[in-house]
Structure formats: C-alpha cells, structure tokens
Write a structure and sequence with these properties.
445 residues, Rossmann fold, Serine Threonine Protein Phosphatase 5, Tetratricopeptide repeat, 50% helix, 13% strand
C-alpha cells in the first residue's frame, strides 16, 4: 500500500492511535479487510469514504475495531489484583474514613470487553467485610463500541473463567459454553464510550477517583499523547489517588506528577502532592448522576453545630466562606441561596457569580453555570479563574473552539493584573504559574 502515511496520519488525528513501522503493517491489513468487506478496490476511494462528512465516522469506527487488539482476560496480571486487594484497598479505606468519606471510586480506562472492571468488582465483592458501609462506583470506558456492547452483556465463554478460584466463579451463572456475570457484579460497573485522546474527560463524573486502572493502553499512543492523558488522569484522581499501569509500562511515568510505590511485590503510582493546595474544584456529582454519593469532607453536622448567622451585607467574606463550606459538604441549595443573598446586596460581585457557576456545573445545570461564569467575566474581564472554569465547561461539552478561546483569555488575563477579588480569603485558588501551565497544555491539544 503506497499511501499508508496519509491513512495513519488521518486516523491518528481522529482517534489518537499512533502507528510506528511495525503497527503500520497491522493498519495495512485492517484497511485491506475493510476494503474487501466494502467491495472497494481503489485506495483513494476508501480514503474518500473515511473523509465523508456523514459516513466517515461510522467507517472509521469499523476500521478501528481491526486496528486495536482486544487482548484481555479476567485477572490479567494477577499479582496486581492481589496487591490491590491485600495492600492497597485497606489503605484507601482508611484514608477515606479519615476524610469522612464512604465512597470508593475506581475507573477502568480502556476496559475492552469488560474483564478488567468485572475483575475489580469481584475483588471488591469478596472484600465486602472491609468495605463495611462503603458504597462502590466503578466506571469503565473504551473507544470500541462493539467491545462495550459485549462488556455490558456480561456474557463470556466458559473457558475464560475456568482458571478462576471458586470464590470468584460463584459470581457467574453458566449454561453450556456460556457464562453470565451475576447482576450483583454487573450493577457495580457503569460502562460508557470515551476516546482518551480526542475527547475531553467528563470531570463531572470522573472526579475524585481513588484508583485508575489503565493497563496495556498506552502502547497505541505517541509520547505526547501519553503525557496529555496522564495529565488528565492526574486531574481526575483525588489527593493520594493511585494509577495502575501494566507492569511493562513503568518507564512512561513522570516522577513530578506520580510517585512510584512498591506495593505487594508490584508497582503502583500515587498522585504526587505539589506545594500548593488543591483549588476549589467543581463539586462532586449530584444525586442525579449516582444514587451513591460520597460523604462530604465537611459533614452537615459540623456545619450545623452553630446556627447560621443572619446575612449581613457588609460581611461578604464570611458569607462567601459559608457558601463555599456548604458546597464542600454537597449542600448546594444552601450555597446557591447564600450567593443570591449576597448578590441582592452586591449585584456586581464577580466572586459570587463564580461560585454559583461552579456549583451549578456540579449539579448538572450546565446553562446556568455558563451564564454565571459569563456574568463574572462581564463584571471583571480579567477574571482569570472565571475564564478557566468556563473553558472547562466548554471542554467537557466538546466545544473545543470555545474552550481554547477561554483558555487563551486566561493566559491574556495573567499577562496583565488578573482579577481575583476576595477569593484568596474564601478558598484556595490555583497559583498563577500552575494555571498558566494547565491552560498552555490545553491550548496545545
């Protein structure tokens, strides 16, 4: 195939999949198979099909199925699951208890046909005595729609589970050559499609994660793409959260963002702590996203030990601190109420609109979030944080041009004297250097 370069460049642009000289051979074979299936004999004709504004995406999806290798099995790299169960899980439970949280959140990125996330679910199921009152949320994503369909069905060949210990085989119902994952395990996993490279991460779902499994995925990516995905993983993990890669992928980790830890004879990667404190991020998902929500870092009992003092128009800092405290506790209605009380007396206060925007986005009220971020920017054009959060919303909505424009506005604001108002006295804000670095990375994507 003479023009393989244009095919590889096109596919990498669309999907992020990278083809070195070895993998180009697989690409050539995949294209030939698809051309045969489509009864196309001319390369240019097939290339035009891939570029077709209506049919192109569907054909690209079909071609991708031939390119990626769905090599997976239950308890692949068993030493990692053993270390996760015996050593890491108790550590995570203890840390969350100290934070006042009772939810464990795990993401299987590049889940293929579902063996990995179901393995995670089974490990947690046999460890239910340790979890006590904890609720569990397992997210599983992949770019391949057919593999996700298989994963959601939970149907596997009997041979694929024959090697499992009996304590795990009990989570399947087998008939003949087919075994079905039991509902108690299936219900623990939420599957959805996600391209790690070309699509923005839905941080309103994939946030404050305890663990991310991403094993044998980076073999398809360029180094630059791997760095971008790792940066996004960093943003998704809570402080001291862990990233688990395949044993052969250890060399790709940047020691500045992840710390290598030897746990139970294998290596995991803990999110590194920077000197600055975490910014006031978008609040945790609302009840509408999941019935199992995390216990807030600041419990409502702590808040209500004292009666809420009546709002005083001149006491802006106290009022907005209280609003932020309620947001941290997940009591968003009260946060919104306080912000509106503040705005009734100070209708031109950008900080109040910023907090409203963050809270509305956390509850899924996207249009209200955008409107409030824009109000903050209208009142303070150089409000870098407002531009930043607005950019995040656009990014997660896949409105890339609007997102990039917002991030560029952040950089422009930082070149001047960016507006911050009384925010530093209300909450921890992102340092200028870090904010500029984050936005610059997004602009490059």
């Amino acid at each position: 195939m003479k023009k393989i370069e244009r095919f590889s460049q096109f596919i990498e642009t669309k999907t992020g999949l990278f083809f070195d000289e070895t993998r180009k051979r697989y690409l050539i074979q995949a294209i030939k198979k698809r051309m045969l299936q489509r009864k196309i004999t001319i390369e240019d004709e097939y290339y035009q099909l891939l570029n077709h504004p209506i049919l192109g995406q569907e054909e690209l999806t079909a071609l991708t199925k031939f390119i990626t290798i769905a090599e997976t099995r239950f308890f692949r790299h068993p030493e990692q699951f053993e270390a996760f169960k015996i050593y890491l899980l108790p550590k995570l439970i203890e840390k969350n208890k100290k934070r006042g949280e009772n939810t464990l959140k795990i993401w299987s990125a590049g889940c293929s046909s579902g063996e990995e996330p179901y393995t995670i679910a089974m490990v947690l199921a046999v460890s239910k005595n340790q979890l006590e009152t904890f609720s569990v949320e397992i997210y599983a994503t992949d770019i391949n729609q057919d593999l996700l369909k298989k994963a959601k069905s939970g149907i596997y060949n009997a041979k694929s589970i024959s090697h499992l210990p009996k304590r795990y085989q009990k989570y399947f119902v087998c008939q003949g050559e087919h075994c079905l994952v039991k509902e108690e395990i299936k219900n623990m996993v939420k599957f959805f499609e996600l391209n790690l490279i070309k699509e923005p991460f839905p941080l309103y779902i994939l946030n404050e994660l305890d663990v991310i499994f991403c094993r044998n995925v980076f073999i398809y990516f360029r180094e630059e793409s791997v760095k971008r995905v790792l940066r996004n993983f960093y943003l998704c993990l809570k402080d001291d959260g862990y990233l688990i890669l395949a044993p052969t992928e250890s060399l790709i980790i940047n020691s500045k963002t992840f710390v290598t830890e030897k746990i139970g004879g294998t290596f995991f990667y803990r999110k590194a702590k920077f000197k600055f404190k975490s910014p006031f991020h978008i609040p945790k998902p609302s009840v509408s996203l999941s019935k199992k929500t995390s216990t807030p870092k600041v419990s409502s009992k702590t808040i209500f030990k004292k009666k809420t003092p009546p709002f005083k128009p001149d006491n802006l800092k106290t009022a907005l601190k209280e609003a932020r405290l309620y947001a941290d506790a997940g009591l968003y209605d009260r946060t919104i109420e306080i912000c509106h009380q503040v705005l009734n007396h100070h209708p031109t206060l950008p900080e109040a609109y910023l907090i409203l925007g963050i809270v509305y986005y956390g509850t899924g009220a996207i249009e209200k979030a955008i409107a409030n971020f824009k109000k903050a920017i209208y009142l303070a054009p150089d409000f870098a944080l407002a531009h930043f959060y607005l950019g995040n919303v656009y990014w997660h909505l896949n409105k890339m041009s609007e997102a990039i424009r917002s991030y560029k506005n952040v950089v422009k604001s930082l070149q001047k004297t960016p507006y911050c108002g009384i925010l530093p006295e209300i909450m921890d804000v992102i340092p200028e250097k870090e904010l500029r670095q984050i936005c610059s990375e997004y602009i490059k994507t």
